[in-house]
Amino acid sequence: MADARKAALRAREEPRPPARSEAPSADGVRATLGEKIAAVSRTAKPGEPRAAVVEILRSALAESHEIARAYLESGGKGLVCARYLSDLEDEIIGAIYDYVVRFVYVADNPTFGERLTIVAVGGYGRGTLAPGSDIDLLFLLPYKQTPWGESVVEAILYMLWDLRQKVGHASRSVAECLRQARADVTIRTTILEARFILGNVELFHELLNSFDREIMRVDARDFVAAKLAERDQRVSRAGTSRYLVEPNVKEGKGGLRDLHTLFWIAKYVYRVREPEELVAAGLFTRSELTLFQRCEEFLWRVRCQLHFSTGRAEERLSFDLQPMLAAKFGYHDRAGLSRTERFMKHYFLVAKDVGDLTAIVCAALEAREAKPPAMLDRVLGRLRRRSRKMPSDDFIVEHDRVNVAAEDVFRRDPVNIIRLFWTADRYGLAIHPDAVRAITRSLRLIDSDLRASKEANRLFLDILLSHNTTETVLRRMNETGVLGRFIPEFGRIVAMMQFNMYHHYTVDEHLLRAVGALAALESGRGPKQAALANDILPTISNRKTLYLGLLLHDIAKGRKEDHSQAGAEIAHSLCPRLGFDPGETDTVAWLVQHHLLMSSIAQSRDLSDRRTIENFAAIVQTMERLKMLLVLTMCDIDAVGPGVLDAWKAQLLNVLYWETEVVLGGGHSAADRKSRVAHAKEELRAALADWSDTDFAAYAQRHYSAYWLKADLSRKIRHARLLRDLSDTKTPLVTTVDLDTKSGAVELTVVAQDHRRLLSIIAGACAASGANIVDAHIFTTADGLALDTIFFSRAFPLDDDELRRARRVAEYIEKALRGEIAISEAVAARSAQRGATTAFDIAPGVVIDNSFANMATVIEVSGLDRVGLLFDLTNAISNLNLNIGSAHIVTFGERAVDAFYVTDLTGGKIVSPSRQAAIKRQLLDVFALRARKAPGGGAGAAPT
């Protein structure tokens, strides 16, 4: 029943394929090519046959690839396509070999030493090739290379290279293969997948028999450990989560390489040659083997289509390719999800299944003592190793994994489904695959009665509030399907991706990581940027409202209505079931409804404006809510992706918290504005020990309070030394560059006389010189200097290369500010050079509001980011005769959200409705005009 339900779930995501054409076959290609090559070789002039032969082979390859592509795009199977391409390669290599030994290096009577065997290894050895795959060959020799054999191998390789194929090759004797296999696990894996193509078959069998006898029988445990360590390193490079929204189909977690690793280990330990033998070996059930085959088929279809669509060996399922593949696979918009999101949901469900199969294999290996045991938390596991008494006789411990004591454990008491995960968390144990199998067969028991059970809800809340392994256990609950059944609203967002560049993970993975971020913060393992959140977390009176608010904050994603409002309604429904009283329920619902508020205001509003703080405080109302919202916001941003919670975002959130604390406290605070400004000055004074008191006092007067609160100490030190060196300059203009290790971006500081086109010129110069702006800190000194720091993304991995590039960008900005460059023309040229980006379609919007600030009108502009967007916007604002007092540059992936605090030339707000309408029209025209000239155009103020 569980298998039927899983199949039904995938059927809802997988479209019905079109009627596909007949499966292609490579049979007879070698013979046909042989006839054509022989005809050419007999009639061609000396020196000409080789070029003609290569052309014959090239035409055959191109024609066959088109056959494979047509078959795949008509709904054909990915594995059939991959096997056809592998069979085709066998035929091509056979035809080349026949040509070489018949017409080029003829040996009428080859000696024993001139025996040659051509063996396919790697992916080619498995009998599957993607269109852009490497061709890995082993030329197997009796004992050493002979001149004839060397010439034949060289001729074959040169012809393959002439066909523009990527060939990996080695020439070794059987003894050399064995010697290298003992020393290198990669060579061992290569031989494990060796497949005979042509030549002397006895030599091939000698290799396999010797390898089995001398190596495979003696070091299975070492091989398993090495392959699992290799897998860990690989997924670490490709992304440690299988739910990354731009997954690597081959190398990523949950991808094809994970399936390959499972089979390599199974072949080595269980002595099988084909996946079908895994059932007889007892590793997989029949349904698990079917799942293995289904996953392999889907991933191969995606991979082959990626290669065909891009014309290269592309393994990353990037945003620009996802819509194209979704269309080719026949997906359609449905149930609040675009066809791209439905396609990717199917992909992530398959990746989850690959993870389940990995767990099954690892547990089986532990049972055979072929790998070290697994635990949810190894520290907890060591501490609790001595305590083996389970809280219930329904559970036992096998190989450091919690298992069910009998097959009817869940049927007798469905609460045991939740209790199993509670037990795993309490004892720091992984869950045995047999228990997982029992759970998947019992998912139907998670019904309305179990959801209403006080004990089940108590156990779930214990897991959520645990100080042990909350995130890991919740993720296991999710992967087994329990979490989505126990909280049906959560089930709707399982494997759901958000088609944008901002979020790195699927919605369910993001929520689990957010809970994990809170647990890390509470245990003192949170990021240093979240120090304030860490300090106030112990003062929050009700931690369960905070944990549940985080788990639910995005639970309504993918619905037509606003997900924050819909999520609050879900909270109102769920909280009483979990035992929350009305006040706690209201708090959770409030957190979900306003979970974006603090981040939005901190990053896009002027925090030195009293009106901003008062408006925010009116929504928050209490100190307890303010504390919880700060912590929730920090954890939410941290869970978006690595490095997203940087020092600047954290500092803005801290400032908003402190400023609001003053208002909510009736004007009194433990750290009010004046004392915080004074503390910031004292901190800088201590760092500038070589300054006199007089010099420092004069310098301190140059900055407004907003500067002291927003800039961090390291930048204050650099700014102080920079401005002191400029004190005697009448027309100051200086740029400095540095590498910001916190955000991984390049930091460029510009000091110049302030004027209303300054920001526009800087933004334009960055765009024209190829600097991808990711953030901007804008300050003005009391004596009329602009102190602007622009952050742009790196282009080179080496620091020296990046610093040279950054200095060129800085020089370009200086030339632009001196009027030596026509910025508009330079930006237009760069935009045209970058070309179009069509993966995303975001409708632009402009909001003009006079209630956000006391002294300025706030213009908030949002739309698709691209090259030169910030320049175009600021240039348009300047052309409207508006002064930009401050700018707040934020980009959420491909969506730019920029807020400008502006006044008219008299210093007043923009109050005329007709004037506001004109401003809105011209700013919207910025998007429309550039779209006509260079659609999409790439990225301007790139992601933060």
UniProtKB/TrEMBL annotation:
<dbReference type="GO" id="GO:0006808">
    <property type="term" value="P:regulation of nitrogen utilization"/>
</dbReference>
<keyword id="KW-0808">Transferase</keyword>
<keyword id="KW-0677">Repeat</keyword>
<keyword id="KW-0548">Nucleotidyltransferase</keyword>
<dbReference type="InterPro" id="IPR045865">
    <property type="entry name" value="ACT-like_dom_sf"/>
</dbReference>
<feature type="domain" description="HD">
    <location>
        <begin position="507"/>
        <end position="629"/>
    </location>
</feature>
<dbReference type="InterPro" id="IPR002934">
    <property type="entry name" value="Polymerase_NTP_transf_dom"/>
</dbReference>
<protein>
    <recommendedName>
        <fullName>Bifunctional uridylyltransferase/uridylyl-removing enzyme</fullName>
        <ecNumber>2.7.7.59</ecNumber>
        <ecNumber>3.1.4.-</ecNumber>
    </recommendedName>
</protein>
<feature type="domain" description="ACT">
    <location>
        <begin position="747"/>
        <end position="824"/>
    </location>
</feature>
<comment type="similarity">
    <text>Belongs to the GlnD family.</text>
</comment>
<feature type="region of interest" description="Disordered">
    <location>
        <begin position="1"/>
        <end position="28"/>
    </location>
</feature>
<feature type="compositionally biased region" description="Basic and acidic residues">
    <location>
        <begin position="1"/>
        <end position="19"/>
    </location>
</feature>
<dbReference type="Pfam" id="PF01966">
    <property type="entry name" value="HD"/>
</dbReference>
<dbReference type="InterPro" id="IPR003607">
    <property type="entry name" value="HD/PDEase_dom"/>
</dbReference>
<dbReference type="InterPro" id="IPR002912">
    <property type="entry name" value="ACT_dom"/>
</dbReference>
<feature type="domain" description="ACT">
    <location>
        <begin position="858"/>
        <end position="936"/>
    </location>
</feature>
<dbReference type="Pfam" id="PF01909">
    <property type="entry name" value="NTP_transf_2"/>
</dbReference>
<feature type="region of interest" description="Uridylyltransferase">
    <location>
        <begin position="1"/>
        <end position="389"/>
    </location>
</feature>
<dbReference type="Pfam" id="PF01842">
    <property type="entry name" value="ACT"/>
</dbReference>
<dbReference type="InterPro" id="IPR043519">
    <property type="entry name" value="NT_sf"/>
</dbReference>
<dbReference type="InterPro" id="IPR006674">
    <property type="entry name" value="HD_domain"/>
</dbReference>
<keyword id="KW-0511">Multifunctional enzyme</keyword>
<keyword id="KW-0460">Magnesium</keyword>
<dbReference type="InterPro" id="IPR013546">
    <property type="entry name" value="PII_UdlTrfase/GS_AdlTrfase"/>
</dbReference>
<dbReference type="InterPro" id="IPR010043">
    <property type="entry name" value="UTase/UR"/>
</dbReference>
<comment type="function">
    <text>Modifies, by uridylylation and deuridylylation, the PII regulatory proteins (GlnB and homologs), in response to the nitrogen status of the cell that GlnD senses through the glutamine level. Under low glutamine levels, catalyzes the conversion of the PII proteins and UTP to PII-UMP and PPi, while under higher glutamine levels, GlnD hydrolyzes PII-UMP to PII and UMP (deuridylylation). Thus, controls uridylylation state and activity of the PII proteins, and plays an important role in the regulation of nitrogen metabolism.</text>
</comment>
<dbReference type="GO" id="GO:0008773">
    <property type="term" value="F:[protein-PII] uridylyltransferase activity"/>
</dbReference>
<dbReference type="Pfam" id="PF08335">
    <property type="entry name" value="GlnD_UR_UTase"/>
</dbReference>
<dbReference type="GO" id="GO:0008081">
    <property type="term" value="F:phosphoric diester hydrolase activity"/>
</dbReference>
<keyword id="KW-0378">Hydrolase</keyword>
